[in-house]
Structure formats: C-alpha cells, structure tokens
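Long-time lurker. I teach an intro course on protein structure, and each term I like to show students one example going from raw sequence to a predicted 3D structure in token notation. This year I'd like something fresh instead of my usual example. Would anyone be willing to generate the tokens for the chain below so I can use it in lecture? Attribution to the forum is fine with me.
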Amino acid sequence: MNEATQSMGAFTTPRRLTQSKTLPVVFWAWAGAIILVLELNIWGNWIFGPNFTPTDPGPDPISELELWYLYGIQALSVLFWFYAVWAWILKPSMQEGKLTTDAMLAICCWTMWIWDPSMNYNTTTVLYNSYAVNMGSWTLGSWPGWTSPAGNLLPEPILVLATGYLCWVYLMVVFPCFLLKKVKARYPNLGFVPMLALLIAGVMLTDLVVEVLILRTGVYAYPGGIREVTLFAGETYQFPLTEMLTFGGAVAVVAALRFFKNDKGETFVDRGLDSLNIGQFCQQWIKFLGLFGFTHTAFFLVFFVPNMWFATHSDPWPEGYPSYMINGMCKYGDDRNQCPGPGISIPRPENNPF
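-- Reply from a regular --
Happy to contribute to a lecture. Here you go:
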C-alpha cells in the first residue's frame, strides 16, 4: 500500500461523514421529521379538541339507494384496506426482513390523507356526504392559519378516505408504473422525457376516469370549480380539471419517484444511503423520513398551493346540493348566510388560535 493510498484510507470515514451531510436523503429526512411533527400536531389538536364530532346531515332526506351505496362503499373500502396492508406492506416487508421501498411509499400515500380537506383552506370548494361515518375534519381550530368558516364541519368520510389513500392513491401510483414498464419493454430506446410524460398523463387520466364516475354517486362534490375548465360545469357532479392537474400531478410525482430508480433499486431520495456510517435500523428510519418528506412536500407544492389560488377564483356553486352535502358550510358574505362565489366576501374565523 503506497503513501497516497494510506492517506486516503486514513481520511475515508471523516470524508464519508462530511459528504453524507449533503446527501438528498439527509435533507429530505429532516424535512420529513418536521412535516411529521406538524401533521401529528394538527391531528392531535383535532382528536383532542372540541371539533372531533360527527357533522349533522341537516333536514334533507337521503334516498335509500344512496344510503345503501354509502354503506357498501365504506365496507368495501375497509376490506380492500386490510388486503392492501397485508399485500403491499406487511407481506413483502416480512419476506425481506425490513420495510421495502414500496411499503414505505404505500405508507406515505396513506398518510397523505391529511391534505385531503386542504382544498377548503381559503374557501369551500369540496363537499362530502355527512351520512358517511365521519368526525368532522381537522381544519378550523386545528390547522394553522385556516381561513374558510365552518371548515370543521366538512365530514371527512373516515372509512372511505382513511382507507382510500392507501388503496386507491397507491394503486394510482403502481398501475401507471406497471403500464409504463410494459411500454419500456416494447420500446427500449424510449427516453426519459417521453417516459415521464407518459407516466404523468397516465396518472392524470386514471384520476379523471375514477373521479368522474364516483362524483355521479354523490359521495362528494366539487362545487367550487372554474367553469371554463370544468367538465359538466353547472351540474352537482361537475369535475374541475384543475383537480386532475393538482391531485393527479402530485400523485404523478410519487409515481415518478417509484419508477425512475437506479440499478441498485434506489430512488432519487434515498440514493447513497448506504454510504452513511450508521446501522440498518437508523438507515431505515432515515429512508422512510426522506420518502415521507419528499412525497408530502410534493403534495404541498403541487396540490395544496395551487388549489389555494384556484379556490379564490371559482364560479358560483351549482344549485341542488342537499343539506347533507352543504353541511352548514355556506357562511360567507356580510351576513354569513351565502355559499362562496364571485363578489361574496370570505369572513375570517372568529376563533382560530393560530
């Protein structure tokens, strides 16, 4: 061993530790830890606060068919969730003796449920059917800076969405990746940009088809759409294409993270993780927090931020929503008795400690 080699060997560990500080996974792990604490604080304020209570459906009756549909979709969602937890998280992780990358991404998608009511941050643009099992939502009084009045009355359907963000959202990640893998096998010379474009288009089109179908059932609604870019504009089941761009775009970021791995199976986020001079247990935590930080930041930037702007530019609500969809959330205008729309003021919350 020559002198240069000995010198290099003497400084290997300090150099690796110095380089590790600049690894993307370290940055994203810190981001993930901060975001996780903030989200747990939001959920904690909701669960242990005064707004953890079911939303009253109001006086309007619901049809027996719609009610049985709600029962059915909630039951199926729970069953699918149990299958997904076993097939996508527990079974592959038990086989490898540690949480797999896919299992971590599935958990990241599952916890993205926290962003679901954020479309209503400034003003109400999404509604849910309060005949579904719910405990209101973690918004007004729990989420820092929440502006739209009566936001806590949004009846987040727990049995549908607490399960759906694992089952359906992660499926929206996996299925386009599966199709793109087939395309890549058929056209091996396909470049990065065309593949990325196909992946984004696939996720968005999947979201479009699924949401258009579900909207017709009355489980939820998007009353606050910009009609020039809304399908079935003016109907109670209208679908703003901005939702396809923001929600579909955020999911597409996760799908791209999953699909474009290096030859070691590493994503952009956890690349170089094995160079950290730490044990496997710590590596697992750093990797998970890194993926968590990246995916949740993507949802914040691609879904939450644009929707704050779209919400304040929405057109008047379509007519015909029953009380169990509006749920007392039309408290806008000077007298606080109107649904949001152009020319109608958005009052600030009376009691928001944040």
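Some talking points for your students: Residues 1-21 have pLDDT under 50 and may be disordered. The chain has one domain: 27-52+63-326.
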